[in-house]
Amino acid sequence: MYRAKRLPPICRIGSTKPVGDEWASYSKKIVVDGAVEYATLELESDGVCGMYLNGEFIEGHMGRMPGRVFFAEITSKLREGENEIKLEVGGLHHTPAGEIIRERRGFYIHDVAAELKFRTANGETVVVTDGTWKREADDGIETPTVMAAITEDEYEHFWKHAALWREVPEVQTVPDAIEKVAGKAYTEFLNTKEQGYVYPKTVLCSNILPVENPVETPSSIEDGEQYVVYDFEQVEVGYTEIEYELEADAEIAVMYDYSESLTDFSYELFHWSKYKYRNYWPETVQRLILRQTLKKGHGTLRFTRRRACHFMVLRFKTEGKVKVNACRILRSMMPVVEKGYFHCDDELFNQMWKVGRYTLQVNRHQEYESEPRNESKFFSGDGCIDTMTEYYTFNDASIIDASLSHTDPDHGGRVHDVFMRNKSLPDYHAWRIILVHNHYRFTGDVEFVKTYYADLRQIMIALLNMMGPNDLIYNSQVYGDIFFFTSGSIDYTCSFDRLGYKIYMNALFYRSLNLMAELGEAVGEDAEYVSEWRAMAGKVKKAVNELMWDEKLGAYLDSLFPDNLSQDGNALAVLWSCLVFSTK
Known about the structure:
Jelly Rolls; 15 helices; globular; 584 residues
């Protein structure tokens, strides 16, 4: 992977003026002194950021995780001679354009940092954000404020681990044996730049477009609104583009939904008052609405906020007629190469494989994402499933490296406090150890383990600090949940039955101790620590089977809620050989 030597410091640039619209652009013109051999663009933003080169849209930065860095190959986009790079910086991921952010503008400031690197026959060149860039917004054109430079630690920890967005992956050859079994070569792969736009079917509408079998107007549509509902037939991820013709100025609201069927979709969106207190789903749909004011006439609207949906609703408020000439999504999923194959005589299993593979594809971006519509974040627990699926399908190790490089302690599993005070996802710390071990088991990459070993050591200390006097971990109540600040909930799931000694948590603890001993030996850890972790794993196993095993039921029971039989905890105990069938 090409990375030019870093010479000038990368600066965070922005504006301290709490006035004007949500959006501002930062641009710079550069001269390329020869044919481009290779070029990349790296960018970090505290909000949504659309990246353009010579007027062409490249990708959008989500601004959803601290330190998240977008790293794209732009060799084919950069040309000899003058080029202009522009960064369109907006507000938060969940904030519709031009809405809430204006109210918060008094303490919210744009902040973006970028590094453009290219190589020609004349050598390597690095262009970074600094005071020479131009800022342009509705409050005028000016020199941006230089906030601070990216530190060496930030560069080493985040920027160097960012996943490279490749334009064209290498096509793999299908093994002859697989081809004979499957009956055909499964060599297709998804490539964003080649497949390009995705166009939906029109399924519902008002007077925007004709429909053969019109349905009753949805109750959530206000009087005078014109609307159209689109079906993309599967979950699609990318950037919405709408071509329109307006007789008068209009306000457009674009809604996105994941529903499996049109029936579910209609109930969630169009029966809002009946549904909103029963499920978090419609609240998410409402929060992710994108709104824009459009001028009359013909135009094209593109959102730089990446969104995912199965169904999409366009709603217009206007005094004139509306014509939607086209609605499409510019696909944005990391290109993949098929390296794993599955085929059997049961077509249902074949479909399950394909659905699982596609589910991973839509959640692969700069990192593994929990889901691409709302959170768009990496969770270490989810990451264990992502990586195992990855190893058997695409085997691209760069994604997990980029995912683990983030510092978010609540989602990524890192520990900032070894006493684990008020941690709503203590199990995710253990899953981080398992995740690193899975990668090591499949690749044998000791250097990868060394990169994250210090974090794992901190996790191990934190887990040991959670132990009670009987050698088991006790789940304590969270006194200020990260999502529900006054709920008094037990953990991130807001489940009140996860207090006490849990077989699920202690099976994870047992597994983590054994794996840390193995990883410690791989990196040359002090033998005293390795032997201590193995000895502690033996104590945990003994305590689990003496204190939590129910001989009559033939299962492990949690201490405070013995009526709840933990399926996940018991399954993990069996999977990881923690089980002893009799304590006698």
